[in-house]
Design brief:
The chain is of the alpha+beta class. The chain has a single domain, classed as 2-Layer Sandwich (Alpha-Beta Plaits), CATH 3.30.70.100. The protein is built from 3 helices and 5 strands; from the N terminus they run βαββαββα. The longest helix is centred in the N-terminal third of the chain and has 18 residues. The radius of gyration is 14 Å and the shape is globular.
């Protein structure tokens, strides 16, 4: 296995996604990511995405290049692009959370990440950038 790499980015949807469109997008993403060995987390609210991708460096970079060409969203802002020592979303080809509604538990990859309590990890000195970013997001959406 090659070195692990992580990209975290934010973007804006070109058009709003209804529940059906989100479900279709997630089904395809989960299937393709599982085949490619990519794991991650996708958050969605009011037409905005925050996504973390992780896997072998060339595979993650190729997926991000494809995402940058995807007309379904624009204004892509890379926040983190770096090698990582371990996967932080190892149990999901694409953990997902739609922040607009709380009734999407049936969507592929649904994650309880935002429903779990903060536990003080945010103040740890050696916390990975991605985890710190997601915890800051979690802390400030309430």
């Amino acid at each position: 296995m090659g070195s692990l790499f992580q990209i975290v980015y934010a973007s804006t949807a070109s058009e709003s996604f209804d529940r059906s469109a989100l479900k279709d997008m997630l089904k395809g993403s989960v299937r393709r990511n599982a085949q490619a060995g990519i794991t991650g987390l996708l958050l969605y609210k009011d037409g905005c995405f925050l996504q973390a991708l992780e896997g072998e460096e060339p595979v993650v970079k190729a997926l991000f290049a494809k995402i940058c060409r995807d007309p379904r969203h624009h204004g892509i802002i890379p926040l983190i692009q770096e090698p990582v020592a371990q996967r932080y979303f190892s149990n999901s080809a694409m953990a997902f959370r739609d922040l607009e509604t709380m009734d999407h538990q049936d969507l592929p990859g649904y994650s309880e990440f935002l429903n779990t309590p903060l536990n003080g990890d945010l103040h740890a000195k050696d916390i990975p950038k991605c985890k710190r970013l997601l915890l800051l997001f979690k802390q400030n959406i309430r």
